[in-house]
Write a structure and sequence with these properties.
The structure is a homodimer. By secondary structure, chain A is of the alpha/beta class. Chain A contains 12 helices and 7 strands. The first copy, chain A, has 2 domains: 174 residues, SPOUT methyltransferase, trefoil knot domain (Alpha/beta knot), CATH 3.40.1280; 61 residues, Helicase, Ruva Protein, domain 3 (Orthogonal Bundle). The interface between A and B is large, with 62 and 62 residues. Chains A, B: GO terms for molecular function: methyltransferase activity. Chains A, B: One of its GO terms (biological process) is methylation.
Chain lengths: 253, 253
C-alpha cells in the first residue's frame, strides 16, 4: 500500500480543545505531513477566525473537519486508536515511544482507518477516553518543563507517522539528498594533489624534507575525510600552480 | 557526557524572524526538549508581548536570548552548524534527514558548542547563510503542502535532538568512529581560513575579485564536509602565510 494512502487513513482527534488557534495549528501540522482527516470532539470554539489564521494553507482541513459530541463517535469505524498521554493510566494501555507506536499505527493503517487521540490543553485525556484506545504514547520531554503545546504535539506525532510511512522508501531519500554533482577524484588524482602540495610547501620553506614530521599525514587525514571530487582537486592544484608561478618555481607535481 | 549537557550545548539560531509569536513558540519547543540557548539574528520585533504569551513557561529563554546583527556573530565559537533548508543549494552542504543529521549534531556537541540555524518564515535562509553551515537538514513534508510553521520546525528538530541525546547509541558510535584527536575549529577560525585563502588567491591572480565566479562557494563546500580541526586550520594557514612571504605579500587574513 502506498505511504500516501496509509497516511490518509489516520484520523487526528482533538478532544475538547480550548483554543481555536491550536485547532488551526494542528490542521497545518497534519497537512504538512500528508494527513487530512481532522475530528473535533466538543471544541470550545469552532469554527473561529483564529483557527483559520493559524491553519494558513490548511483551511480545507478545517472546512472538512467533523465535529462530534463524543470520542466514541469520532472513533467509529476505526481499527486502532492511540491516545497521547503524559502518564501511565491505571489499567490503561502501556505507554510507548512515538517512534515505535507510530510504526505500529501505520502497520494497522494497512488494515483500515486508525486514529491519534489528543486531550484538552490543560486536562489531557480522561481515563475513560484513554481506555477507549488500544495503545498510548508519550512524547519524551524535559522533566523540568513538559508543557508541550497541543499543535506542537500534533506536529511531532504526524512527523513520526510520515517517517514510519516512508521508512525504507529509498525514493524519499533520493528526493532529499542530492548526490555529488561532479565525479569523484580518483586515487591517482588525489596522490597528484599531495605531491603538488608537498612541492609547494618545500619551495616556500614551510616543509623541511629532511624533517617532515607529521605534516603530510595530517593533510592526508584532512583531505581523506572530505571525499574529494575531481573538480575540487583541480581547483586546489590551480591555487598551488598560481603560487608557484609567483614564486618562480616550475610545477613539480 | 550526559545527554542533558549535550542538549545544553545546542544553540537555536533564528535568522530574521518576522513574527514574535514564532519566537515564543520556538522557546517553548526548545525548553520542552531540554534546550535553552536561543539566539536571534535581526528579529523584526523583539522583545514583544506576543512572544511572551506563546512561550508560556519558557519566558526565561526569551529573557536570556542573545540578539545579534549577523549569523557569523551568532555562530561565533561553534564547532558545527546545521542549516534548515527546504532545498539543496548550489554548492551547499548535502541535505540530510532530521534523524541522521541530529545524531551527527549530538556527536559534534561532545566536542563543543553547536548550532541549529533557521531562516525567515517566508524567505528561509539565504545561500550565503547556508554556506556558513557545515551541514543541512530538511524536514520531510508532503509535496502538496510543505509550509511548516517555524515553531513547529523547531519542535521537530529539538525532539530529534532529544531522541538522539537519549538514544544510548552514543557510546557505541564512540567505539565505531575514530574520535578527533584535536579540538575542532570554531566558526570564526574557519571563516579566518576562508579570508586568508581568498587573499592568497587574489594575490596570485588565481581569483579575480571582480569576477569571483563559484570558486569560494566550492571551497566552502569542500572544507565544510571535512569537519576541520583547529590544528588543520593552523597548518593550512601556515602554508598560505609561507607562500605570501615568498610572493612578497603580507598576511591579510
Amino acid at each position: 500500500m502506498k505511504p500516501e494512502v496509509l497516511l490518509s487513513r489516520i484520523r487526528v482527534v482533538l478532544c475538547r480543545p480550548s483554543h481555536p488557534g491550536n485547532i488551526g495549528a494542528a490542521a497545518r501540522a497534519m497537512k504538512t505531513m500528508g494527513l487530512s482527516d481532522l475530528r473535533l470532539v466538543s471544541p470550545k470554539q469552532f469554527p473561529d477566525p483564529e483557527a483559520d489564521t493559524r491553519a494558513t494553507g490548511a483551511v480545507d482541513l478545517l472546512a472538512n473537519a467533523r465535529v462530534s459530541d463524543s470520542l466514541a463517535e469520532a472513533l467509529h469505524g476505526c481499527v486502532f486508536a492511540v491516545a497521547l498521554s503524559a502518564r501511565q493510566r491505571d489499567l490503561g494501555p502501556a505507554i510507548g515511544t512515538p517512534r515505535d507506536t507510530m510504526a505500529r499505527l501505520l502497520e494497522r493503517a494497512s488494515l483500515g482507518e486508525v486514529a491519534l487521540v489528543f486531550g484538552n490543553e490543560t486536562m489531557g485525556l480522561s481515563n475513560e477516553e484513554v481506555l477507549q484506545c488500544q495503545a498510548a504514547v508519550t512524547i519524551p520531554t524535559s522533566p523540568d518543563f513538559s508543557s508541550l503545546n497541543l499543535g506542537a504535539a500534533v506536529q511531532v506525532l504526524c512527523y513520526e507517522c510520515r517517517m514510519a510511512a516512508f521508512s525504507g522508501a529509498a525514493p524519499l531519500r533520493e528526493q532529499l539528498t542530492t548526490p555529488f554533482t561532479a565525479p569523484p577524484a580518483t586515487h591517482d588524482e588525489i596522490e597528484g594533489l599531495y605531491g603538488h602540495l608537498e612541492a609547494v610547501m618545500t619551495d616556500t620553506g614551510f616543509l623541511n624534507p629532511a624533517q617532515p614530521g607529521r605534516l603530510l599525514p595530517k593533510l592526508r587525514r584532512l583531505f581523506g575525510r572530505a571525499d574529494l571530487e575531481r573538480d575540487e582537486v583541480n581547483i586546489l592544484r590551480g591555487i598551488l600552480a598560481a603560487t608557484q608561478q609567483r614564486t618562480g618555481h616550475g610545477r613539480k607535481g
